Amino acid sequence: MHAFSAHNPNSSTFLLTGFPGLEGEYSWLSIPFSCIYMMVLSGNCLVLCVIHTEPSLREPMFYFLAILGLTDLCMGLCTVHTVLGILWGLSQEISLDACIAQTFFIHGFSGIESGVLLAMAFDRFTAICNPLRYTSILTNVRIMKIGLGMLFRSFVFIMASIIRLKLFHYCHSHVLSHSFCLHQDLLRLACSDIRFNSFYALALVICMLLFDSVLIIISYMLILHSVLAIASREEWLKPLQTCVSHVCAVLVIYIPIIGLTMVHHFGKHLSPVVQVLMGNIYIIFPPLMNPIIYSVKMQQICVRIQR
User: Fold this and answer.
1) Is the pLDDT reported for residue 2 higher than 90?
2) What's the mean pLDDT in 197-226?
3) Rounded to 5 degrees, what are φ and ψ at 231?
4) How confident is the model at residue 235, as a pLDDT?
5) Over the chain, what HEC string results?
6) CA 200 from chain center: how many Å?
7) Residue 268's pLDDT band (cuts 50, 70, 90)
8) Would you say 2 and 92 are in contact if contact means Cβ atoms under 8 Å apart?
9) Which of 20-29, 95-104, 267-276 is the least confident region?
10) What φ, ψ does residue 194 adopt, rounded to 5°?
11) Positive or negative, the Cα torsion across 13, 18, 22, 25?
């Protein structure tokens, strides 16, 4: 059945890639991956539970943190069944419809993650540079509008390219490069005209990830300019410490994205294991690390978890 799916161009089933050359070690590899996914699900659920049950955390910063935790939780749920399904020996096959749905949610939640980081940068900028108007600027209504805007931007804008994936003719080997489905991976297997999807996806990446990262950098430049104008070192050190968690979250999300992009474009000569490993880091590492970062670096979250 695997051979049929992998080589029959008329098949609507794709073959996911585990770790090439390590097939005999899947039973052992499943142990750390299962533990990682358990930590992703439990860690983000714990942060969400703390924010929901603690009245003192009803602040804009924690609302954005809750959105980030919910996004990371959904990202883990999107991929756990295919990654562990391969390692547990359940199935390496995935239908075209299921693959397109997984692609839609993975890229959609990635866009939300980037948008949340931008919103959190704006939150820190407002709190540090304009503290007297902080509560009047970031009202509950405005936070709700920001959240709806992130949802619209992340999911509605990618619909055009995702719908076209269903219309393509896939005549290549039907073997995907990762343990989950990505837009660029499906384009690689298509024999139809993919120019619209390629250019549209590139434009989305530029408008979303690049635009967000530039605005985040600008916001921190303004924060540094405002903080360093304070005479006392003790006075400017405290506000900067509140930004440490957000800076770590930015690095945790953007470094794997940049690494995976570099591997896909310039790492053709590298072992397939490297691509698979970078893909799993891109999917699992941010949802795993974000709850740890905010639990350790934010005193309010840390105290509530200990209680």
Assistant:
1) no
2) 89
3) -70, -50
4) 66
5) CHHHHHHCCCCCEEECCCCCCCHHHHHHHHHHHHHHHHHHHHHHHHHHHHHHHCHHHCCHHHHHHHHHHHHHHHHHHHHHHHHHHHHCCCCCEEEHHHHHHHHHHHHHHHHHHHHHHHHHHHHHHHHHHCHHHHHHHCCHHHHHHHHHHHHHHHHHCCHHHHHHHHHCCECCCCECCCCCCCHHHHHHHECCCCHHHHHHHHHHHHHHHHHHHHHHHHHHHHHHHHHHCCCCHHHHHHHHHCCHHHHHHHHHHHHHHHHHHHHHHHCCCCCHHHHHHHHHHHHHHHHHHHHHHHHHHCHHHHHHHHC
6) 20
7) low
8) yes
9) 267-276
10) -105, 10
11) negative
| CA distance readout (Å), 84 to 81, 107, 179, 244 | 6, 20, 9, 33
Q: Is the pLDDT of residue 255 over 80?
A: yes
The helix-helix angle for 96-129 and 244-266 (nearest 10°) equals 140
pLDDT confidence of residue 5: 43
On whether the CB atoms of residues 71 and 113 are closer than 8 A, the answer is yes
Distance of CA 288 to the CA centre of its chain: 11
Q: Which two tokens stand for residue 268?
A: 């053709």
In 3D, which of 96, 98, 80, 92 has the Cα closest to residue 16? 92
Residues shown for the chain: 307
Q: Return the pLDDT at 231.
A: 55
